[in-house]
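HOLO CASE FILE
Compound: nicotinamide-adenine-dinucleotide
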Amino acid sequence: MKRILVTGGAGFIGSHLCERLVKEGNDVICLDNYFTGSKDNIRHLLQYDNFELVRHDVTSPYYAEVDEIYNLACPASPPHYQYNAIKTMKTSVYGAMNMLGLAKRTKAKILQASTSEVYGDPAIHPQVESYWGNVNPIGIRSCYDEGKRAAETLFMDYHRQNGVRIKIIRIFNTYGPRMNPNDGRVVSNFIVQALKGEDITIYGDGTQTRSFQYVDDLIEAMIRMMATGDDFIGPVNTGNPGEFTMLELAEKVIELTHSTSKIVYCPLPDDDPKQRKPDITLAKEKLEWEPKIRLEEGLKKTFEYFEDKIKE
Ligand code: NAD
Ligand code: UDP
Ligand code: UDP
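Model generated. Tokens follow.
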């Protein structure tokens, strides 16, 4: 069985990944500084001998002997990554460098959780991996977008210069149980608002689009990517090509939750991308993967999670 390090393992995606890896019998180290993650997300794994929890910040060096590294540590929702923009950049860049140093020393395979945000406000639709993107380098989203772009550069250079065995995946908007109710991203905001009977806040006119991937589909893609041979390093898009406007999403959430909430319109944040949809041809070919969970089904599972969470 493999020794696997998951940075950001106590976060939304990281906790699902740790769960899958532990249940497959691997020896898992979950590393997190609990900035946006929580022990609650992985408490159920503490009972397993093959799960270990470490409080650590990836901006500092970390030493362990491992076979694989999944690098997820980084706040992902705009309010959280903008809360301390300089720290976000440090987490992306120093975090990547430290984990690449660790991979170089241990000869571990390392997977980077990159993002569709590297495409910025895309001029090409749907987005293919060969598109270089349209990112504002000096805006309020830049700490995240450019931090993730710099991390991809570091991954490629450690691969070319030091032969590090890398994998890069570009994750499109992902949702599901264990999102933080205060996360600030659109799916959790709308569901929590609908459940509490509060106004549903659409930013801008609601015509901007996103493609939403259910977390289980993403985890399957991550595992498959890590299992590919050393000749395939990506970057590869992982996302659900179903594309929805935020107005359509709000209406779906209201319908599903039978909520009495009303839609209200709020100012659109700066640099908010107008459209987002992955081209997943490469993932289909190289990973033999495509998403299975439709938006209605995924929203229902997420809604059930938040219903219980809000009662706590
Ligand atoms: P999340 O905020 O729930 O998880 C991030 C985790 O990283 C948290 O547990 C947080 O405490 C931890 N962390 C943050 N800074 C750290 C640091 N300096 N040292 C150690 N740990 C630190 O977000 P998520 O949605 O689970 O995202 C996980 C990863 O996937 C992130 O790298 C994110 O950029 C990437 N991603 C997510 C999405 C999405 O839609 N959820 C889309 C694209 C990419
Ligand atoms: N590093 C780490 N864990 C390790 C090996 C390296 O955190 O097991 C850190 C190291 O402290 C350095 C970074 O990773 O800051 C990059 O490592 P590299 O070997 O490329 O750089 P160098 O040590 O030569 O500066
Ligand atoms: N959004 C919204 N209401 C909210 C939160 C977000 O209308 O309460 C919009 C946001 O402006 C963006 C889309 O929903 O156009 C997705 O936002 P999110 O923060 O989830 O992800 P990202 O912008 O990083 O894709």
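CASE NOTES: The two ends are 37 Å apart (CA to CA). Residues 190 and 200 are 6 Å apart (CA to CA).
CLOSED: yes
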